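Hi support team,

I've been running sequence recovery on a batch of backbones for a student project. Most finish fine, but this one hangs at about 90% for roughly twenty minutes before it completes. I'm not sure whether the input is malformed or the queue is just slow. I've pasted the structure tokens below so you can try to reproduce it. Let me know if you need the job ID as well.

Thanks,
M.K.
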């Protein structure tokens, strides 16, 4: 059997429930060999809210699921009859599979994201902040630059009447 990867449109926000429904239908129909993989590509993102670090899953392609399958008539009808699935991405007549480089890119992205969660800092240039920790504790300032890769922010703080740039860790400041 020649398994290829296809993209399916689904209702945005319902990717997981559609995936579960599809997996149940596959099991009931006994087509596990024809459809070995159903993916909802996500990445783990860490964000700071209220001074606490939290992790959440963020969908890479909202409104889509990716399926590895051998597209036979039985499989096509099973997919089309599953509630929540809109259509295949591609031509109306015959679904177009993803090319091997596209599949490799998606799978590598998923692998990379599992290893290193992305840090999401909820600050932007121009935001007013209060420094919570360090030598400039209780000073107010303005965010000049954000460095998510380093987990740092550059804040402009007025000291003795002059604006001074101070590099701080993201958790040392809170948004005003």
């Amino acid at each position: 059997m020649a398994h290829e990867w296809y993209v399916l449109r689904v209702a945005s926000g319902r990717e997981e429930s559609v995936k579960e429904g599809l997996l149940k239908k596959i099991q009931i129909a006994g087509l596990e060999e024809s459809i070995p993989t159903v993916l909802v590509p996500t990445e783990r993102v860490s964000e700071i809210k209220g001074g606490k670090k939290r992790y959440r899953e963020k969908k890479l392609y909202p409104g889509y699921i990716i399926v590895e399958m051998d597209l036979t008539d039985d499989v096509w009808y099973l997919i089309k009859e599953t509630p929540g699935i809109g259509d295949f991405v591609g031509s109306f007549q015959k679904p177009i599979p993803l090319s091997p480089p596209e599949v490799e890119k998606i799978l590598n992205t998923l692998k990379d994201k599992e290893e290193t969660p992305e840090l999401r800092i909820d600050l932007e240039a121009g935001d007013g902040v209060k420094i919570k920790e360090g030598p400039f504790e209780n000073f107010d300032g303005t965010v000049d630059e954000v460095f998510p890769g380093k987990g740092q922010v550059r804040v402009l703080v007025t000291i003795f009447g002059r604006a001074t740039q101070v590099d701080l860790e993201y958790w040392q400041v809170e948004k005003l």
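--
Follow-up from support: It reproduced on our side and the slowdown came from queue contention, not your input. The radius of gyration is 23 Å. No action needed from you.
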